[in-house]
């Protein structure tokens, strides 16, 4: 393990922030401070990052070597519905952190949805464009991060995992919630992506911190799968009722999303180095750690 580090993680009530904070506290000797707007098991400091005074208050208590900025509004529908809140949360908060912690190693979570090409398989040099307002805010926030001397911008595909400590809308939890409420998930057959398990993301983040790499990196599975196929496979592995899923086309949805939102993660694997597990290996890891919790979740009210 590398020398002692001070780590500031934003958004620790979210999927990645929570799991990363949990892992670092248990498995390393690093000093970890977690922030969020609300109380939570991993929250050390309640703060509104859109307010400079709150960010300055955090700086008085910690001079972090590394900032991992996961806090964001990630729903395209929500961003379209509440554009001002989306902008302040995704852009202004990032700008405040970059300004006030200008000397820290800054790891920022953007999105692979910045790529919107008919062919997909985008590497980090592919052209970017905003297919919706959420993506627009992430691209604007990236520009602040790029001005930092030491930074990594991560453009992940959909990150999935099980969360039982609070409400979370990651793709897998959406599926479980729909099944629990006995509704049907309408899942696109013509939208393709490279989903990645949250614990794999944590593995990658630890390697990034240890290696001090710089630049933009895609992170996702090395396999391409449709969202319908992804959900169907998870339902098969966890023996869930297939009557709760229906395959549809993209025209079914009001918010536009890239149909071929696929990426190449060769660069991150080469530079760290790190081998991203197969989707089946990720599913098996999820199954081995969460099967009983998922069963209990589905029968709870």
Task: Name the descriptors.
10 helices; 7-stranded parallel beta sheet; 301 residues; alpha/beta; 16% strand; Rossmann fold
Explain this structure.
By secondary structure, the protein is of the alpha/beta class. It has one domain (6-299): Rossmann fold. It contains 10 helices and 13 strands. It has a 7-stranded parallel sheet, with helices on both faces. A two-stranded parallel sheet has the order 7-10. It has a two-stranded parallel sheet with strand order 8-13. Helix 1 packs across helix 7 (198-211), helix 2 (52-61) packs parallel to helix 4 (83-100) and helix 6 (171-180) runs parallel beside helix 10 (279-299). It is globular, with a radius of gyration of 19 Å. The N and C termini lie far apart (43 Å).
Helix content: 40-55%
Taking all Cα atoms into account, the compactness measure Rg is 19 Å
Largest sheet, described in full? 7 strands, parallel
Overall spatial form: globular
The sequence of SSEs as H and E is EHEEHEHHEHEEHEEEHEEHEHH
What is the count of β-strands? 13
Major sheet: order of its strands?
A: 3-2-1-4-5-6-11
Number of domains: 1
Are there runs of 5+ residues with pLDDT below 50, and where? none
Task: Produce the secondary structure layout.
Elements: E1 6-10, H1 15-27, E2 31-36, E3 45-46, H2 52-61, E4 66-69, H3 76-81, H4 83-100, E5 105-109, H5 133-146, E6 151-156, E7 159-160, H6 171-180, E8 185-188, E9 192-193, E10 196-197, H7 198-211, E11 215-219, E12 225-226, H8 227-237, E13 245-248, H9 266-271, H10 279-299
Parallel strand pairs: 1-2, 1-4, 2-3, 4-5, 5-6, 6-11, 7-10, 8-13
Antiparallel strand pairs: 9-12
Helix pairs in contact: 1-7, 2-4, 4-5, 6-10
């Amino acid at each position: 393990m590398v020398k002692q580090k001070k780590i500031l993680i934003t958004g620790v009530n979210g999927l990645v922030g929570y799991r990363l904070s949990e892992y670092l506290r248990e498995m390393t000797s690093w000093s970890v401070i977690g922030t969020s707007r609300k109380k939570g098991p991993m929250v050390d400091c309640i703060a509104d990052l859109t307010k400079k005074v709150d960010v300055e208050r955090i700086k008085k208590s910690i001079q972090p070597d590394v900032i991992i900025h996961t806090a964001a509004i990630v729903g395209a529908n929500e961003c379209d519905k509440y554009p001002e809140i989306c902008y302040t949360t995704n852009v202004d908060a990032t700008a405040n952190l970059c300004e006030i912690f200008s000397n820290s190693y800054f790891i920022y979570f953007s999105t692979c949805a910045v790529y919107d090409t008919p062919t997909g398989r985008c590497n980090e040099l592919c052209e970017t464009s905003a297919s919706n307002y959420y993506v627009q805010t992430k691209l604007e926030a990236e520009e602040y991060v790029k001005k930092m001397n030491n930074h990594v911008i991560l453009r992940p595909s959909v990150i999935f995992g099980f969360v039982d400590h609070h409400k979370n809308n990651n793709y897998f939890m959406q599926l479980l919630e729909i099944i629990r409420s006995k509704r049907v998930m309408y899942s696109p057959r013509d939208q393709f992506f490279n989903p990645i398990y949250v614990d794999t993301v944590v593995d990658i983040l630890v390697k990034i911190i240890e290696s001090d790499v710089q630049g933009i990196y895609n992170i996702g599975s090395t396999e391409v799968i449709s969202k319908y196929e992804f959900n169907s496979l998870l339902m098969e592995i966890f023996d869930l009722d297939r009557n709760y899923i229906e395959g549809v086309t993209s025209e079914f949805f009001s918010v536009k999303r890239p149909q071929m939102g696929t990426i190449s993660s060769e660069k991150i694997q080469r530079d760290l180095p790190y081998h991203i597990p197969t989707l089946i290996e990720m599913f098996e890891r999820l199954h081995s750690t969460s099967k009983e919790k998922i069963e209990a979740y589905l029968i709870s009210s």
